[in-house]
Amino acid sequence: MKTLPDNPNLDHLRRQAKDLLTGLRDIRPDATLADAQASLAEQYGFRTWTDLKAEADRRRGHAEVADPALARRIAGRFGLGDVVGEMRSVSRPDEMGRRWLLQTGRGRWAPRTVDDVYPVTDGEDNARFQEAAARAGVTLPAPVRSVSGAVVEVIDGSQWRVYEWLRSGPPLAAPVSATVTGKVGDMLATLHGLRVPVDGTCPWSSVRLASSSWPELAEVAAAEGAGWAPVLAAAVPTLAELESVGNRAAPAAAVLCHNNVSPGNVRVGPDGRLILTGWEHADGLPPAWELAAALVSWAVIPAGGSTPRGRGLWPTVIGRGPAACHR
Prior knowledge:
The protein has 327 residues and is an alpha+beta fold. It has three domains: 10-59; 68-164, Phosphorylase Kinase, domain 1 (2-Layer Sandwich), CATH 3.30.200.20; 178-326, Aminoglycoside 3'-phosphotransferase, Chain: A, domain 2, CATH 3.90.1200. It is built from eleven helices and ten strands. It has helices at 10-27, 33-43, 49-59, 68-78, 124-135, 178-193, 203-206, 214-223, 229-244, 287-299, 313-318, and strands at 88-89, 100-104, 107-113, 143-144, 153-155, 158-164, 255-257, 266-268, 274-276, 283-285. Strands 1, 2, 3, 4, 5 and 6 form a six-stranded antiparallel beta sheet that branches. α1 packs across α2, α2 (33-43) crosses α3 (49-59) and α8 packs antiparallel against α9. The longest helix is centred in the first third of the chain and has 18 residues, at 10-27. The two termini are 32 Å apart. Mean pLDDT is 90; it is low at 314-327.
């Protein structure tokens, strides 16, 4: 589920709805702006577009302000220049930490805490991957190294990273247009074509974390009297079959992948280019695994259903030479 930023921008929500409308009309030519607004509200966890706007109005201007001394320490440690304004939170804490906006005499910066990154990393390989991707043509917020050359610095008990602040629109929301999915396919092909070597596959993506089987979960649901228990019980054979897919397959060698190329990590820049964010989970994956995850993120409609062939993502990625590993 999407989450609103700490200081929601109604114009951003309207733009998200208009972008979403373009994607919906690829599937349903008669889709209206009201349909897109309703879908977007649902993705944010609200019953109606009116409810979403009301919450955005209520939260506007409620970003938290960091201790000025902390802002100065971050700016000093990363060589960002003199702080000229308040350091304000951008969003609620996520699974890793929290994102902030800091303005100095040299420009705008995006510091964030990375206290709970899994697997644990010092960010060095991650930053080199981003730098290589940028040289290959992927647009992204450039990682900033500290004055000591480190990617991550411990400041006031938290691990901090800093990125350049790039002006952009809001994060995208699925479904998106065929043009956008084609551009996402281009980015994936570029990243995988770098073939950055890595020591093994990301443990989060390669190990099944659930200890209970589907039949066991169905039995627990039935015992608890859950209203959806019969639906789960009926789906158990299909779920068990899907779980076995690939058991005997030998995955391709892992390379360094972004590991989260989802609509929430992609924005549109002023020049129309896509900006890829959220690099903190970059780790080793067989490229086809990341492609499969991207297809789910971009080609599955949140309210149910899927889009034809990922509307450009699949044919774009497999059709390029650097991405031959997907075939």
